[in-house]
């Protein structure tokens, strides 16, 4: 069965460009190595009989552009999630208002608060995205 890598062995980074995985059971080495090689993430795993060694290649300009696109995609997913949370919150407020548990004034104030939180979190996501894009494009 598929299991998280962290649950079948020790993962360490002896240097910035190398990841090592030392499985607790030696007969898992080939399965782990094959899973990493077949994962389509651009990494090539090798083993020395006791552990798996993954050398991380330097980023090419093309790979940097791909990663920036992925960052933009994840940022958009984050913004969508925040907007969905806003919609859910507003729907709950409207339901409470309809049931008579929240007055008109409290409804408007709560909706404004939700919108302010939405704006704050979207702005944070945009800042993190910009910083990550700068970091990725820096050679």
Structural description of this entry:
The protein has 3 helices and 4 strands. It is an alpha+beta fold and 139 residues long. It has a 4-stranded antiparallel sheet, covered by helices on one side. A hairpin with a 4-residue loop joins strand 3 and strand 4. Helix 2 runs antiparallel to helix 3. The model has no long low-confidence stretch (mean pLDDT 91).
Q: What tags apply to this protein structure?
A:
139 residues; alpha+beta; 3 helices; 58% helix
Give a quick summary of the entry:
By secondary structure, the chain is an alpha+beta fold.
Strand segment count: 4
Distance between the termini: 40 Å
The radius of gyration computed from the alpha-carbon positions, rounded to a whole number of angstroms, is 23 Å
Strand order of the largest sheet: 1-2-4-3
Task: Output the structural class.
Answer: alpha+beta
Largest sheet composition? 4 strands, antiparallel
Rounded mean pLDDT is 91
Strand content: 15-25%
Helix content: 55-70%
Low-confidence stretches: none
Shape, per Cα inertia axes: elongated
Q: Oligomeric form of this entry?
A: single chain
Q: Total number of helical segments?
A: 3
The SSE string, one letter per element, is EEHEEHH
């Amino acid at each position: 069965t598929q299991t998280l890598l962290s649950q079948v062995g020790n993962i360490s980074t002896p240097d910035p460009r190398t990841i090592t995985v030392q499985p607790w059971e030696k007969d898992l080495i080939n399965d782990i190595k094959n899973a990493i090689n077949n994962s389509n993430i651009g990494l090539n795993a090798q083993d020395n009989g006791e552990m798996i060694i993954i050398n991380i290649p330097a980023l090419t300009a093309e790979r940097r552009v791909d990663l920036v696109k992925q960052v933009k995609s994840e940022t958009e997913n984050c913004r969508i999630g925040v907007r969905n949370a806003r919609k859910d919150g507003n729907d709950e407020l409207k339901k409470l208002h309809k049931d008579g548990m929240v007055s008109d004034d409290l409804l408007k104030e709560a909706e404004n608060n939700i919108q302010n939180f939405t704006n704050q979190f979207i702005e944070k996501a945009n800042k993190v995205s910009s910083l990550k894009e700068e970091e990725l494009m820096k050679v």
